[in-house]
């Protein structure tokens, strides 16, 4: 007789999901799934709102990566009013650099949160340590100085987001064709030089290296366990610049295979020509894939590991040194080791800090030309925006009628892109840690969550399934007997 093993909820992630395992009589894993059991439906209730509200409303999908949604929506609005890059119009330097500064600040603080608060406890204490110890409070007790630096680093990133976006959460800065404010000299100096109550940018860069040092120490002690954990193949995808290296804010979509051959490179406005999305009855999260390769071969991985696999060179020196070490480890092949996502995330923390320093020293941030005003008749009513969110490639696609009211919205978020590879990881970890074991321990169950947490999934962002939301109503009497059941 088969048995069902359920982890509900998966902990230390954003949103609500569960893992369901099917086991045979000998505890061999027959099937393993990550099931996303919440539904939010932002794509539907934005319809009928004025188009300019889209970046403001849709960023409320998430309280963590809202900057990515805000900027992605803003880029779609640029298209809609006829001042986007698809119209051959280059955004003015000040608004583009302000948007980038906020974007890099979000990547810094989001990665720091995921890496230290959600992922690091297993690095320090081990996967099978008691749950009451392997958490941020246990980490603070074991290494209070590290956690103090983490808190200061995250606060600094949040303060920079507030300075750029106008609010610490759910920003208001981007408007069609630009932004509504620049960065004053006083604000610039606050983040560059620091002070009694805040870090300087050089301290931020120093603190950012804590993440790399933690991974290096962890890897040195547990190399075999880390390298063999949840190894799964997938294509890697991210936005790239004209040199074929990652650009977090803009570029073309590039997909590579395990040998780093280019599978696809295309203008993201053509995404409908290349991608389709499958659905399953057991999850509210869709499964994107490349049409040309089919669902299994055409599924992609996005996020830190994918971006670092794709990228050949950074122009910032410390991150470049870390990137070279990363690539040398796999001798130039794509890295498919799930826990090496944490290595890639640590590299991106450092890279973000260095990019922020460059921008803070750029006088364009004090420029006063903030908006390109659309010409009369430039309205297109349709726009697509793509950015690299901390978790990976994020797409917003909007349409509006002549009155400017939204008629359509499609969001393909990073966690949705990763849906197939996350499920592959759950399968691989379940086979290695649980299949055939006589006794299933709490530590074994936590290993499945460790595999999921490596992707830092945001299930709240990802639940935009096509079709109807099923409704089930059960009528039960006082003794618990089922009298009737209706579905819609």
Record keyword descriptors for this entry.
488 residues; alpha+beta; Cytochrome-c3 Hydrogenase, chain B; 2 domains; four-stranded mixed β-sheet; three-stranded antiparallel β-sheet; 17% strand; globular
Average pLDDT, all residues: 91
Distance between the termini: 32 Å
- Secondary structure: number of strands: 16
- Number of helices, where a helix is a run of at least 4 consecutive DSSP H or I residues: 17
**Architecture (CATH level 2) name of the largest domain:** Orthogonal Bundle
The Rg value, from CA coordinates, equals 23 Å
Taken as a percent bin, the fraction of beta residues is 15-25%
Q: Return the CATH topology of the largest domain.
A: Cytochrome-c3 Hydrogenase, chain B
Shape: globular
Structural class: alpha+beta
Model description:
The protein is an alpha+beta fold and about 500 residues long. It has two domains: about 40-85 and about 235-335 and about 380-415, Cytochrome-c3 Hydrogenase, chain B (Orthogonal Bundle), CATH 1.10.645.10; about 90-230 and about 335-370, Cytochrome-c3 Hydrogenase, chain B. It has helices at about 40-45, 55-60, 65-80, 95-125, 135-140, 145-165, 185-195, 200-220, 225, 270-275, 305-310, 315-330, 340-360, 415, 420-435, 440-455, 460; strands at about 5, 15-25, 30-35, 175, 180, 235-240, 250-255, 260-265, 275-280, 285-290, 300, 380-390, 390-400, 405-410, 470-475, 480-485. The strands form six sheets. It has a four-stranded mixed β-sheet with strand order 8-7-6-11. The chain has a three-stranded antiparallel β-sheet with strand order 1-2-3, covered by helices on one side. It has a three-stranded antiparallel β-sheet with strand order 12-13-14. Strand 12 (about 380-390) and strand 13 (about 390-400) form a beta hairpin. The longest helix is centred in the first third of the chain and has 33 residues, at about 95-125. The relative contact order is 0.19.
